[in-house]
């Protein structure tokens, strides 16, 4: 038994019928061997075919990947490219309301300009005051007199020399030599204001002595911060300029037992404390010295 059909009469401008036939032919919607505008209308109505703005629908996984790419581009100072991806997400992504609102807010904020402003301040050797919101939601102020954009692990960060040291000394009282050095994320900067004063031109730093053993003695790849790299028997000794021990310690954990912090004692002891806390977390007994 044949399905009943309803008649639909359309009034369209001249040339529209031909364009509909072209679209139907492109998508293989035919009546016999001829393109079928009626079949095209049915396919659109039954949501079997998406045209125009809806032609591309991004999955949740694709949206997440593009969001991550946007953050990396912003960190790298490629603001225009980040804007292009954000616009694509807003136009094509099937986004939940909170995420769509966050993207719209991000487009309206100046957060994407922080990297370009920082680059300009650094090029002009211009001290500045920065308002920053940390991971705990606290709003803090820092007076910056030297800064570099540095790549740590998988993203770019703002490494600075700043006047404020109270909280750094509270967390690491045994490392006063580098208490002025701080590391910040671009997406947490709230504002930047140039100030008068002297641009330092460098960070405070520590010389850290590392010993690489076993396979790492040969496999170790020199870093830009290394100032000495010598083989002593079965050990490779590397002396490195360190401005932020946080990143060094993360690196050493990845090397495991084949890398040892030999000196200074302040950095060695900090690593040992973190290692002991990890052992305590897993209920491992402390080894007698």
Automatic annotation (TrEMBL):
Top-rank taxon: Bacteria
Residue intervals passing through the bilayer: none
Record protein name field: WYL domain-containing protein
Domain WCX: 238-278
InterPro entries listed in its UniProt record: CBASS_pafABC_assoc_protein (IPR051534), WCX_dom (IPR057727)
Pfam families to which the protein is assigned, alphabetical: WCX
């Amino acid at each position: 038994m044949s399905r009943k059909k309803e008649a639909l009469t359309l009034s369209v401008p001249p040339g529209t019928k031909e364009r509909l036939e072209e679209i139907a032919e492109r998508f293989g919607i035919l009546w016999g061997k001829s393109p079928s505008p009626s079949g095209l209308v049915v396919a659109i109505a039954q949501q079997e075919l998406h045209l125009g703005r809806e032609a591309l629908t991004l999955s949740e996984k694709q949206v997440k990947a593009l969001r991550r790419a946007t953050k990396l581009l912003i960190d790298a100072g490629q603001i225009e490219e980040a804007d292009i991806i954000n616009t694509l997400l807003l136009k094509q992504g099937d986004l939940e309301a909170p995420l769509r609102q966050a993207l719209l807010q991000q487009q309206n904020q100046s957060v994407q300009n922080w990297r370009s402003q920082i680059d300009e301040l650094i090029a002009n050797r211009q001290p500045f005051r920065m308002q920053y919101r940390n991971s705990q939601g606290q709003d803090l102020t820092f007076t910056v007199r030297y800064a570099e954009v540095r790549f740590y692990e998988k993203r770019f960060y703002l490494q600075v020399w700043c006047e404020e040291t109270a909280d750094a000394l509270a967390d690491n009282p045994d490392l006063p030599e580098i208490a002025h050095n701080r590391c910040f994320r671009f997406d947490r900067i709230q504002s930047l204001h140039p100030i008068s004063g002297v641009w330092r031109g460098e960070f405070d730093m520590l010389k850290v002595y590392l010993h690489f053993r076993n396979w790492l003695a040969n496999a170790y790849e020199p870093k830009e911060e290394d100032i000495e790299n010598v083989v002593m028997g079965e050990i490779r000794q590397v002396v490195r300029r360190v401005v932020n021990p946080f990143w060094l310690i993360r690196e050493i954990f990845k090397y495991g037992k084949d890398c040892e912090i030999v000196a200074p004692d302040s950095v060695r002891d900090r690593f040992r404390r973190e290692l002991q806390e990890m052992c305590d977390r897993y209920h491992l007994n402390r080894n007698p010295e």
